[in-house]
Q: What sequence folds into this?
């Protein structure tokens, strides 16, 4: 039978990110002495408690996916700390990081592209067991069958290939693969964005049930603000590689303090949170992470911007209990 690991909520944060930066050098003029750098993640800090779901939202290109990949070291962070159960993962040697990967898994955005088309379901879902070599080969198919049943798939699917399934079924296979090693933390990167709306709700309910049954902790990355509100305990808003606001989900959606969060939430079509609110249309384009603005990264599009915003980066400070915002003029609408 599948054993469910228990977490101890009294042990402090399960995950703690401290001033994390992930920069990518760009190829430029070989005769130039200056190097261009994409600041995909640029000084992010937050904590995640055991059993919590932290949602991350923001426009395309804001660094959400790179942040998730940096946590599991699919991208190597440039600086900062990724503390998992108090242990810094950033410089762990490969052998030790391999052991930690049993406790940190990832669900990817594309349910088709993330599955090897040449592998059967039994091999895909059981791949972690094979890599970690924690279970005898003869017992793997039985454990994979049990996990498929947990995510709502039949045992007969064991020997089929990914192309034989619908998008929702493929994402369930990806979820089964992520849970096969009984992780404590799951990074869900746009886990439902590629699915039909009706299938999205099924997968979201499945993720909520699995969190309860397996004592999981989620970092849930998504574009859809309604989806993030539904599944998250707290929500962090990212802009140009930085977290600009973070608060309990209900508080953030009802009382956003940072202008970018206000504009983002005002764009939810027809939602109860937007009724009676004026739609905020942002001017200009998102600046390039190759050359971000000085001071506040949002100042070039912000209607509240003043001289201080161009010279002094606003720190992420607690404006209200549990509600942090990075803005010199943070206030509710």
A:
């Amino acid at each position: 039978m599948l054993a469910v690991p228990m977490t101890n909520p009294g042990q402090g944060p399960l995950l703690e990110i401290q001033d994390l930066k992930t920069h990518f050098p760009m190829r430029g003029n070989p005769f130039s002495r200056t190097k261009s750098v994409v600041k995909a993640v640029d000084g992010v800090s937050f904590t995640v408690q055991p059993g919590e779901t932290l949602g991350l939202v923001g426009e395309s290109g804001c660094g959400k996916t790179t942040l998730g990949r940096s946590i599991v070291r699919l991208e190597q962070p440039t600086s900062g700390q990724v503390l998992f159960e108090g242990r810094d993962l950033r410089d762990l040697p490969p052998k030790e990081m391999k052991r930690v990967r049993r406790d940190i898994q990832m669900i990817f955005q594309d349910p088709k592209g993330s599955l090897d088309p040449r592998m059967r379901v039994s091999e895909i879902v059981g791949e972690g067991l094979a890599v970690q070599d924690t279970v005898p080969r003869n017992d793997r198919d039985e454990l994979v069958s049990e996990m498929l049943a947990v995510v709502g798939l039949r045992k007969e699917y064991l020997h089929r290939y990914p192309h034989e399934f619908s998008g929702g079924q493929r994402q369930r296979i990806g979820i089964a693969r992520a849970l096969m090693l009984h992780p404590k933390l799951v990074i869900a990167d746009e886990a439902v964005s590629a699915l039909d709306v009706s299938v999205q709700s099924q997968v979201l309910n499945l993720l909520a049930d699995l969190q309860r049954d397996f004592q999981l902790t989620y970092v849930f990355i998504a574009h859809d603000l309604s989806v993030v509100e539904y599944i998250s305990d707290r929500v962090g808003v990212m802009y140009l590689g930085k977290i600009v606001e973070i608060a309990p989900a209900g508080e953030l959606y009802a009382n956003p303090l940072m202008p970018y969060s206000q504009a983002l939430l005002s764009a939810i079509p027809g939602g109860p949170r937007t009724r009676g609110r004026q739609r905020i249309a942002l001017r200009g384009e998102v600046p390039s992470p190759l050359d971000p603005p000085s001071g506040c990264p949002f100042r070039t599009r912000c209607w509240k911007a003043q001289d201080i915003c161009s010279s002094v980066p606003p720190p992420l400070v607690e404006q209200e209990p549990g509600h942090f915002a990075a803005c010199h003029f943070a206030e509710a609408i």
Notes: The two ends are 53 Å apart (CA to CA).
